[in-house]
C-alpha cells in the first residue's frame, strides 16, 4: 500500500488518487481556524494520529510553487513527523523549488538544489526522490543521490500531436535541448524579460507548425524572444509547450504571443491543460 501525503500546493492531484487502487491519501488536518497556516503566516502541519498505525510506503507529493519558501517549511515538518514515526519516506516533486540554483557561479554562492536534496536524504532519511523535468536532470552531483528524473515530454507531445499531427518540436535554448532531446537554438539574454536569437538559423521552419518546448516559464522572455525571431521565417503556426508555469505574468505573455499554450499541471494554475496525474501514478507504481 502506498500512503500518499499531498502538501497544500499538490492538493489538485487528490481527485485522481482518491479511489486509485493501491493508494491511500493521508489528509492534512487543519488548525482551529480551519486552515493550514496561522494569522502570522506560519505553517501548521498535522498528518493525524492514525499515521502511526499504517504500514507501507509513505510518499509526500509536493509542488514548489506558488509558495517556494512556505512550501518547503510545510514539506520539512511533514518529513519530521514521518521520521519520528520511523516510516520509509519518499518525496515526489511535481515542481522542485530552487531547481535553477543548481550550480555555484561565484564565490559566496551555494548549490541550493543539491543542498536541498542532500538534506532530505541525510537528515530526514528520505529513501527516494522524484522530480518532474528538473532543471538539473543530468548534473554530475546527482550520481550519489537516490534521485529519479521524470520526463513529461511523452504526455506533452501527445497532447500537441492530437491537435497538430505534423508539428515539429524545437527547444528555445541549448539547456532544454539536452533534456528533451530535440533541436535547440542559441540565445542572447539582455535581461530577465528580453532574449534575442539569430532568425537565420530558423529558415528550415518556414511553413511548418512549430511546437516550442521549454521546462520553466517565469517572465516568458525566452519563449517570446524565440517567437519574435522565428516569425521572421513565416512558420505556419507557433504553439508553446511548457512543463512548469512558475509565474502568472509569464503564462499571460505566452497566451498573448502564441496561437496556443500547452501547460502541464505540475503547479496548480487555472491555465494548465495537460494533466500529469497518470504519469505520477505510473512512476510511483513501478
UniProtKB/TrEMBL annotation:
PANTHER family in the record: RIBOSE-PHOSPHATE DIPHOSPHOKINASE FAMILY MEMBER, RIBOSE-PHOSPHATE PYROPHOSPHOKINASE 2
InterPro entries: Pribosyltran_N, PRTase-like, PRTase_dom, Rib-P_diPkinase
Known catalytic reactions: D-ribose 5-phosphate + ATP = 5-phospho-alpha-D-ribose 1-diphosphate + AMP + H(+)
GO terms assigned for molecular function: ATP binding; kinase activity; magnesium ion binding; ribose phosphate diphosphokinase activity
Cell cycle recorded as keyword: no
GO cellular component, one term: ribose phosphate diphosphokinase complex
One of the GO BP terms on file: 5-phosphoribose 1-diphosphate biosynthetic process
EC number: 2.7.6.1
Domain of life: Bacteria
Domain Ribose-phosphate pyrophosphokinase N-terminal: start-end pairs: 35-114
NCBIfam families xrefs: ribP_PPkin (TIGR01251)
Keywords, alphabetical: ATP-binding, Kinase, Nucleotide biosynthesis, Nucleotide-binding, Transferase
Name listed for the protein in its UniProt record: ribose-phosphate diphosphokinase
Pfam families: Pribosyltran_N
Amino acid at each position: 500500500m502506498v500512503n500518499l501525503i499531498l502538501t497544500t500546493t499538490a492538493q489538485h492531484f487528490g481527485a485522481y488518487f482518491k479511489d486509485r487502487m493501491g493508494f491511500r491519501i493521508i489528509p492534512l488536518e487543519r488548525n482551529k481556524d480551519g486552515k493550514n497556516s496561522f494569522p502570522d503566516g506560519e505553517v501548521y502541519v498535522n498528518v493525524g494520529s492514525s499515521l502511526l498505525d499504517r504500514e507501507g510506503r509513505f510518499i509526500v507529493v509536493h509542488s514548489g510553487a506558488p509558495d517556494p519558501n512556505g512550501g518547503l517549511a510545510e514539506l520539512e515538518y511533514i518529513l519530521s513527523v514521518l521520521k519520528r514515526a520511523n516510516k520509509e519516506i519518499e518525496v515526489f516533486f511535481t515542481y522542485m523549488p530552487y531547481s535553477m540554483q543548481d550550480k555555484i557561479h561565484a564565490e559566496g554562492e551555494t548549490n541550493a538544489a543539491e543542498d536541498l536534496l542532500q538534506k532530505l536524504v541525510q537528515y530526514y532519511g528520505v529513501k527516494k526522490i522524484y522530480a518532474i523535468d528538473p532543471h538539473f536532470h543530468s548534473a554530475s552531483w546527482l550520481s550519489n543521490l537516490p534521485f529519479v528524473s521524470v520526463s513529461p515530454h511523452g504526455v506533452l507531445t501527445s497532447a500537441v500531436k492530437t491537435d497538430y499531427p505534423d508539428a515539429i518540436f524545437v527547444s528555445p535554448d541549448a539547456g532544454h535541448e539536452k533534456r528533451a532531446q530535440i533541436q535547440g537554438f542559441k540565445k542572447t539574454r539582455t535581461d530577465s524579460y528580453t532574449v534575442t536569437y539569430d532568425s537565420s538559423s530558423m529558415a528550415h521552419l518556414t511553413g511548418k507548425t512549430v511546437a516550442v518546448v521549454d521546462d520553466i516559464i517565469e517572465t516568458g522572455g525566452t519563449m517570446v524572444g524565440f517567437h519574435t525571431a522565428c516569425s521572421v521565417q513565416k512558420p505556419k503556426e507557433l504553439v508553446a509547450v511548457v512543463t512548469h508555469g512558475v509565474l502568472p505574468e509569464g503564462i499571460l505573455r505566452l497566451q498573448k504571443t502564441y496561437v496556443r499554450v500547452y501547460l502541464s499541471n505540475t503547479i496548480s494554475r487555472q491555465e494548465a491543460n495537460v494533466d500529469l496525474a497518470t504519469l505520477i501514478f505510473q512512476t510511483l507504481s513501478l
